[in-house]
Structure prediction request, 209 residues.
Amino acid sequence: MDLKEFTTDLVKEAFGEYIVDLRFSGPYEDEDLDVDVILKGKPVDFEGRMLNVFRQMLDADFDVLIDYTVDGELEQNC
Amino acid sequence: MIELDFAIETLANARAFLQLEMRSQWIYRILLARLYYAAHHLGRLLLRNVELTPEQWHRDIHHRVWRELRQHDVNIGRMDIRTLNILERLRRRRIRADYELHFIIRDEYMDEAAILLADYLNACQQILGVM
Prediction:
């Protein structure tokens, strides 16, 4: 299974049109993958959607670290 | 419970730095690491309370703490999954702080991390019966 694809599918299913970008990095240590989900805003049911993704990742026993930020809260110095 | 004291002290110090406007990237990176490890050690304390021995684990420790918290705390209703998710989000922020030096961490990102630890600590204190 391609982990990036699996993660992308999960996050897209949960957040769909709210996603600005999905950034993969790592792994840096013993995690499987690092993911930053950049959202254009937080939907009202943000927490439920986030936990749904988290739950499915736990069920699959993947050590994928996902964090969510609203566009503009996280800057990348290029 | 040294882990609980450590978490309380960590949160207090983090808040002090932020309230005093000590907001350099260097300080943010230190605080994000300390916030995560305070949460991690609290998780280990909860697991020792159900007779597990995380100090004897040698591999995949961070993920194992998650997995075991889910089995021993979340699945029996002692901890809600939102609290467990906080541990993940703090770990991600800690790894970013340590490895992604090209990212500039904004104030809101740092402030939210402190709030996440506060929520996590509150939940753990309730589980431990110290609130």
